[in-house]
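input
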Amino acid sequence: MSIPEGPTVFSECGTVDTAKLLTAGTESEELVKKVGLEAAERSSIILYNWNALRRILDRHEDTIRKRWTKKTRVRKKTVLHEAWGGEMPRLHRPDIEYLLKEETELNTNGVMRQRPMGEFKWPHINLEDLSCGKTMLCLLNTRARYPPAAFVYHEIQSCSLGISSDTLVPLMLHGYIMYLEGETVESYGKLVAFGEDSHPIGGFQPGSGLLVLEIQQKVMEFLVKFCETILQQPAHTLIDQFSVPTGTLAPI
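output
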C-alpha cells in the first residue's frame, strides 16, 4: 500500500504573479493546465488518505481513544507536533493572535513582517484546542466518517480571516469553475470551462478550490500520521494486518 507522491505545487496563495501567465485577456493554456494538474494531484492524495484514515479507524478507533485519553497534556502536545510535521501553533485562533501582535509591533516599532501562511490556512489546528478534552478524537472521527466534500465550506470559512486580510490571495482563473463533489479524483477538484452565455451552478472559483484542496491535503496527512504515531505502526500495516472488529463503538 504505497502513498502517492505530493503534488507539484506551482503556486502559493498570496505569492502568484498571474500576469506572467495571462495572454491578451484570456487565460493561457499553461495556467489552465497547471491548475488542473495541481487539483488532480491534491485530490488524489486527499482521497487516498481519507480512505486510509477511514479503514484505520474501522479497525483501531477504540484503541486510539484509550491511548489518547491516557496521555498527559504535555505528551499529547508532543504527539501533535510529531504528527503535524512541524511547529504547531500554541494558542487558539493563531490567525487572530498573529494579527494582534502584528498591530502592536507596527505601532511600536513601525515594522511589519511577512505573515506566516500556516496560521491563516489552518487556524483550527493548534495545541491549545487539540490537546484539550475530546477535540482531537472528534476531529479524527468526523474527518474519517464523512467524505472531504462535506467540509469544503468549513475550510473556506475557517480561513476567512486570511482571505479578508489579504494574507491569502487565491489566484483568479476566468472562464472556469472547480467542482469539489463526489469521492473520486474525476469529480473532486474537477475543472470545467464555461462560456459567456452559460451560468454554472455551484462550484468554486478555481483559486478558492485550490486553497480548499491544499488545506484538506495537509489535514488528512496529519490525521493519518497521528494514527501512525499513536499506534506506532505504519498505515499499511494497520490496515492490511488487522481485521475490522465486531460490535458497535460507543459515541465519543
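quick obs: Residues 6-12, 14-25 have pLDDT under 50 and may be disordered.
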